[in-house]
Structure formats: C-alpha cells, structure tokens
Amino acid sequence: MEGEAAARPPRPFMGVKARRGTSFRRDVKGDYLDVPSDPFLSAILSKQGDETLLFADKVLKCTGTGKMKRCILMITGSAIYLVDPDAEVLKRRIILAAIDKICLSKLSDNFFAVIVPSEYDCLMASTRKTEIVTVLVQASKSRSEYEIGVVFSNRFEYRAAADMVKEVRFEEVDGGIKTKIVKKNR
C-alpha cells in the first residue's frame, strides 16, 4: 500500500487546492496507530464486522460548543469511526453511504467537514487530511458506484448539531491561514 499510494498524486486535490510542500512526498501508511495491536480499537471494528482498516490516526474534532477535542479516526471499507481516546469509547459510526460530501477550503489548512445529510456533520482537522479524503473517496467508489463528493470553498456550512448550523470561513493572512467558525442564525 505504501509505495503504490505514495506514487500516485491524490486525485481529489489536483489543480484545486493549495497544498503544503510536505504533503507532496509524504509516505502513506494508512494505520498510524497500529490498530491490530490495540485490543480496544480492534474490538470496536470486529464488533461491527469491519475487517479491512484503511486508515487510523488521531485527529482534532470540533465539538458542538466549538472546542477542538482529540479523537481517533478510523476508516474502513464501510464506515468511519470516531473514538474518544481518553474515555475509550466509540462516540460515532458513520456508514460511508450516508456521507454526501467532504468540504475543504482552497487554502493549505488542515480542516475538513464530513457532510452527513441524515445526521449531523463532522468538522475535523488533521495534518493527514489529503490521505483521509483520498481514502474516503476511493473507499466509497470501490464499495459501490457512488463516490463521495469533494467540494472546495473558502466558506462552507456544516451542521454542528441537529439544530445548529455553523459556517467555516478561511482567509489568507500574512504568515498563514485565518480560520473562523461562526454560528449561523436560521
């Protein structure tokens, strides 16, 4: 997996998104947490009947209150798992078929939103965002004829909770990217 994925450019980003220089020649590992050697994480996957782990790493998830919380993201051929590493509890399982699209800015930031129309959405940040998005798109496509959409915009909305919509705004400023998350009045 490492050599094959590292040799191919990540398709969802081609010509649309500004990328950091370090993301071009990064080795692709997939499982950065060694899930098979972790009894708790392995048990979560086997309980759900998922055997093929495509990606696992720690990410930051934006909570409904706007705080960034560390969590474990695991992607299999059929679902995304969000695990609280401190409480060692599965917080959320999202089947890939329920994901409508992934929203990203056009700038070189670490944020991405997983849009799930039948539930609430999920805003996360990871230095391995390119790999995460690529794995999700390829997994959805290989499982069915459906492919998760990838939308690039420096301003997008996501549902932080059933009754709360937030807007994420990205802006280039001297020395980096300014990210602002604001609650929308509906």
Describe how the helices and strands are arranged.
Blueprint: H1 2-7, H2 39-48, E1 53-62, E2 68-76, E3 79-84, E4 89-95, E5 101-104, E6 111-115, E7 122-125, H3 129-143, E8 149-152, E9 155-161, E10 164-173, E11 176-183
Parallel strand pairs: 5-8
Antiparallel strand pairs: 1-2, 1-7, 2-3, 3-4, 5-6, 6-7, 9-10, 10-11
Could you describe the 3D structure shown?
- By secondary structure, the protein is an alpha+beta fold.
- It has one domain: PH-domain like.
- The chain is 17% helix and 40% strand.
- The protein contains three helices and eleven strands; from the N terminus they run ααβββββββαββββ.
- The chain has an eight-stranded mixed beta sheet with strand order 4-3-2-1-7-6-5-8. A three-stranded antiparallel beta sheet has the order 9-10-11, with no helix packed on it.
- Strand 9 and strand 10 form a beta hairpin.
- The protein is globular.
- The N and C termini lie far apart (45 Å).
- The N terminus is likely disordered.
- It comes from Ensete ventricosum.
